[in-house]
Design a protein that fits this description.
The protein is α/β, with parallel strands linked by helices and 320 residues long. It has a single domain (6-319), classed as TIM Barrel (Alpha-Beta Barrel). It is 50% helix and 11% strand. The strands form 3 sheets. The protein has a 7-stranded parallel beta sheet with strand order 2-3-4-7-8-9-10. Strands 1-11 form a two-stranded antiparallel sheet.
């Protein structure tokens, strides 16, 4: 039997087709590129200089960014790359995809952020959003529709280009106590638009991963009902238990994450290993499971902590 590529393994997991060997692995973002490679992460660069660059400078910059993404996937055996594009709209997004494909020759699954739905705003934004939803709900509806329309136009262009595999929808909806909106508001201002964007992305042939931190249990049925291929991050700091999520929806959606980022930053080595092992042991009971942290490998986390749980995956994340 021909061995699957990382991209093929990742897609098999999204489609909930169990595959032998290690379960797929990725990180929504791996920010520790300075420690790992001596290179600033692409999203931490000063993009205000982009407009001043010559096309030669942009081309070199683009190549270095592509190389960072590729090297991260290679070193840590990721099956997918979440791509952070430069400024410049969809044309620049396609150029960066092409640079990565020139390096990987189709080896890795490639995704962009593509979530038009309302996310948790900052403090002042929360007050403003609440007032608008209460006093001008029809205008909020129109804003949501316009946002979805724009993302779908972008997706059509990317589909024509033919390189991108899917989208990660990264609007966060939940605090550790549950949804940032009351359920009636969530069902008016988020659920129908999430349902539409997922359906239309899928109809275009894209795969869809829905990300949100926090306690998703009160809205789990709504998230799954919108039919994304996968849910990420299954946040244990928000009280999301992998065993319970597998029991409730493991037969309906691929599950990604659950390795406790809080423990990776401030816990003991033993707690990190325990969290990774718990996520694996329970996640692998579902037809589709992808190993990852419960958020991302963010700045401030020690690289050795990520490498510790990565080793647990290598040794124990194996389907027999």
């Amino acid at each position: 039997m021909t061995e699957l590529t990382p991209r093929e393994r990742f897609i098999a997991a999204l489609e909930r087709r169990p595959i032998p060997g290690r379960v797929p692995h990725f990180e929504l973002v791996f920010f520790l590129t300075m420690e790992a490679f001596g290179k600033v992460h692409p999203s931490h660069r000063e993009y205000s200089q982009w407009q001043q660059m010559t096309e030669t400078e942009r081309r070199l910059h683009r190549k270095e960014i592509a190389k960072i993404f590729f090297d991260t996937a290679e070193r840590y055996e990721h099956d997918a790359i979440f791509v952070h594009p430069n400024p410049g709209g969809v044309e620049e997004e396609m150029r960066l995809l092409d640079e990565i494909r020139a390096l990987d020759n189709g080896k890795y699954y490639l995704m962009f952020h593509g979530d038009p739905t309302f996310a948790i705003p900052n403090g002042q934004g929360m007050e403003d959003m609440s007032i608008r939803m209460l006093e001008y709900p029809e205008e909020v509806d129109k804003d949501a529709i316009r946002s979805v329309d724009w993302h779908l136009r972008r997706a059509e262009r990317l589909k024509e280009h033919g390189v991108l595999d899917g989208f990660a929808l990264c609007a966060d909806y939940c605090f550790n106590t549950g949804s940032f909106l009351p359920m009636p508001w969530f069902d008016r201002f988020i659920t129908p638009h999430l349902n539409r964007i997922v359906k239309d992305y899928r109809d275009m042939g894209f795969y869809v991963i829905k990300h949100t931190d926090g306690n998703i249990m009160p809205i789990l049925d709504r998230l799954v009902g919108c039919k994304p291929h996968a849910l990420h991050s299954l946040d244990p700091q928000g009280g999301v238990d992998m065993a319970e999520v597998v029991r409730l929806v493991g037969d309906q959606v691929c599950l990604c994450g659950n390795v406790d980022c809080g423990k990776l930053q401030t816990g003991t080595d033993e707690e990190c290993i325990e969290s990774a092992r718990y996520a694996l042991q329970n996640g692998m009971k579902a037809p589709g499971y992808i190993f990852s942290t419960s958020n991302c490998v963010y700045t401030g986390m020690e690289l050795k902590r990520y490498e510790l749980v990565h080793q647990v995956w290598k040794e124990e994340g194996i389907r027999r």
